Each structure stands twice: as structure tokens, then as C-alpha cells.
Amino acid sequence: MNKIGLGGGCHWCTEAVFQSVEGVLKVEQGYIASNAPANTFSEAVIVHYLPKRANLEWLLEVHLHTHNSTSNHSFRDKYRSAVYFFSSEDEVEIRKILKKLQQQFKDPW
To answer: Annotated catalytic residue: which of 2, 3, 5, 10?
Structure first.
């Protein structure tokens, strides 16, 4: 089982989206902080998934299309669009996937 952290609005709404994705075994909602400059806590979920049933690229695509990932709204710090990884291997793969998925959006996230 793998895990990824995703922030993109109210964590209850994000939790509901990923609870319905096949291959996702568990979704924990709460607050996540990262390294500077995004080191303040924001609402997010940790998605635990089976990589053979829930492809990481699909999870990231669902994430980016189920919240306003390019909006610069007034609650951007609390509800920031974010992807949190838990290993350097995940970071490399996630950055590669995000670069590819950026082509689906006019504005950068």
C-alpha cells in the first residue's frame, strides 16, 4: 500500500472524492504542513492506495480536476492546492506526472 497527501479545499470534500476511487483503501483528513514556504498547516487528506488498482497518475488527475487548482482565492493558504509526498522516489515520480498533467490547464497551479 502507498500513500500520498493531497490538499485542495475543504478536507471533508476532498475525502469524499477519494473514498469513491477504486483502489483507495483509506482516506485520512486533517491538516498537513510542508517545508517553507508552504510550512503553515492547510486542510488536506492522506490517501492510502494500492498502486496496482489506483494508478498514481490517475489519483493526481482526479485531484487536479476536483478542485480549483489554479485559483488564487482569499483562502489559498488554508485551502491550498498541494501534493505531499513521503519519499524521494515518490517526489521524482510525482513531479514528472504533474509536469505532464500541467498541459491540461491554461494556468499553472
So the answer is: 10
